[in-house]
Amino acid sequence: MVERTIESSYIFSHKKIESLSKNKELEKKEYRIAFVVQRYGLEINGGAELLCRDVAEHLSKYCDVDVITTCAIDYVTWENEYDAGETCINNVLVKRFPVDFPRDIIRFNKCSEKVLCKDHSIDEEIEWMKLQGPYSTKLFKFIEDNKDHYNLFFFFTYLYCTTFFGLPLVANKAILVPAAHDEPPIYLSIFNEMFHKPRAIMYNTKEEKDFVIQRFHNENIPYDIAGSGVTLPDGLSNVKSLDINNKGTFITYMGRIDESKGCGELFDFFQRYKEENNSPIKLVVLGKAAMKIPTHPDIVYLGFVSEEEKYNTLKESKILLMPSKYESLSIVLLEAWHCKKPVLVNGQCEVLKGQCIRSNAGLWYENYEEFSACLDLLLADAHLRDQLGNRGRKFVDMNYNWEIIEKKYLDLIERIE
């Protein structure tokens, strides 16, 4: 399962990194850039929203950056929880607009069943998108009224109203960061035109780029592949790791705890593994729960924790588990590799599998038998874990250094401006 080669096209030489470091003081451009995303805040610490925040903060060193977003925190309800208006987060100006209506779960689920599983019309797909949310009339009006105020608009994720209705208003100035993967909604016909509208696309992985071009035949649109950088929090060594009762050998899942992230299957697999093996292994789970977590003496749920606590717990873990089938980039994998930890991922996700192949730093499974065998191998062989972890750290340092990511975004801006 572990490939012995790494794609050369994804590896920057150490000389390249040194060159970037020597030229770190890039001239600040007179660009005004807007980042449009469905929700934004320090409480939102995963997925495309975190990527948006990280990129916005890093590009603010070189451009004037504003974030255009909603007052919502919860992606399930889209309830307005933040105050509307302007605020500053880590030196980035954030403009929040109220959502017109919260999500009607029953109506949305009924509409989803129709458009994803049955014959339907374009109008029904557009209605599905409005029900998907978050729909904000004031946000869309602001974009349209201020399109001449900004040089470019970055839209994060293809899936939500903020991009679907916002991007066409400024298509000639739009860069799409789609966070796309092979999932049912992306086959809706309403997206066929949208993926041909932006001036450019910034993909997160080669697999995402290949999938989008195969799906939409939009290879004529300028693009690059960036992803995200990884930065350890300040003062990490001074923070104690989380207190895990009877802590011994443990493996870790971190992120949103949701059926859509494969967590249900992960819990089933882990409990079956415990039944079949006399192993002291515990599963430590960090993140916000959107599903019921099984009551089990060796499933330890720690909830939402600080970045410092997260990293210190990860550093004590044997491996990181990533069970999701649907990812365009896994930042958590990069964080694990930065801590020199091997990973075990769902091989049905081409992105996760591709990251493991290119890094030579993880294993993957497609069923319980492979999950069990891989877990046995990784837990039994400390030397293998060290090898994989060290390769993962090298892969992150050479490909996901923030200086490299910044330069890719700035280069793409220069190409189309």
Portion in beta strands: 15-25%
Number of strands: 14
Termini separation comes to 43 Å
CATH fold category name of the largest domain: Rossmann fold
Structural class, from secondary structure content? alpha/beta
Low-confidence stretches: 1-26
Q: Roughly what percent helix?
A: 25-40%
CATH homologous superfamily identity of the largest domain: Glycogen Phosphorylase B
The top level CATH class name of the largest domain: Alpha Beta
- Please tell me the overall pLDDT: 89
Write up this protein.
Helix 3 runs antiparallel to helix 4. 39% of the residues lie in helices and 16% in strands. The radius of gyration is 21 Å and the shape is globular. Strand 9, helix 9 and strand 10 form a beta-alpha-beta unit. The strands form 3 sheets. The protein has an 8-stranded mixed β-sheet. With 417 residues, the chain is an alpha/beta fold. The longest helix has 18 residues. The protein folds into 2 domains: 215 residues, Rossmann fold (3-Layer(aba) Sandwich), CATH 3.40.50; 164 residues, Rossmann fold (3-Layer(aba) Sandwich).
Give structural attributes.
alpha/beta; Rossmann fold; eight-stranded mixed β-sheet; 14 strands; globular
How are the elements arranged and paired?
Blueprint: H1 14-22, E1 32-36, H2 47-59, E2 64-70, E3 85-89, E4 92-97, H3 105-117, H4 122-132, H5 137-145, E5 152-156, H6 161-164, E6 174-177, H7 190-194, E7 200-203, H8 206-216, E8 223-225, E9 250-254, H9 263-276, E10 282-286, E11 299-303, H10 307-316, E12 320-322, H11 331-338, E13 343-346, H12 350-359, E14 362-365, H13 368-380, H14 382-399, H15 402-416
Parallel strand pairs: 1-2, 1-5, 2-4, 5-6, 6-7, 7-8, 9-10, 10-11, 12-13, 13-14
Antiparallel strand pairs: 3-4
